[in-house]
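Dear support,

I submitted the protein below through the web form. The confirmation email said the job was done, but the results page showed an empty box. After a refresh the structure appeared. I'm attaching both so you can tell me whether what I see now is the final result or a partial one.
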Amino acid sequence: MLQGFHLDRPARPWVLLRVLLNLVWLGGLVCGSGAYAQFEKTPWPAAAPSLSETFKDHTGQSISSESLKGKKLVINFWATWCAPCKEELPTLQIFSDLQDPTHTRVLTINVKEPASRALRFMQNNQITLPLVPDPQGEWAKKFDVKVFPTTLLVAPSGQIRWRIVGEVDWSSKSPQMWLDSLR
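What the results page shows now:
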């Protein structure tokens, strides 16, 4: 028999509760450590020029920076082989759906993949965000994107304000606050 441990006596409820709470806490440490989005948000260099590009979506339609002037813009760089990207995109869709399209646009740029692969992934996951294919990685290179996902937040003036590297839960409060702060 173990010292202080009696099988013939029922355990006290507070002991069971304490053991249960410790197991829940330990489970949170073990299982929850990777459950939250990991990202780094840094300011874009102030001296950088305003956005002056024209993007072409997967249908060939042009999206000019002039047509985006006066709107807040979220540009998300991603790839289908990137697990954090695939986790993030559905929350970015929710975020986009909650925005007023006359004030905010969300563009996704799929990097170094055939447009058909990216489109198939988006269709299979009910993602209707505009898709800008970047099969050669030219857009990623222009914006110095080396890690996926990476998101740029652009003010209505066309000035890029923030770079966010890593997975973001766009359905949480912080991204809306970031967008609201763009002037």
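Response: this is the final, complete result; the empty box was a page-load delay. The radius of gyration is 23 Å.
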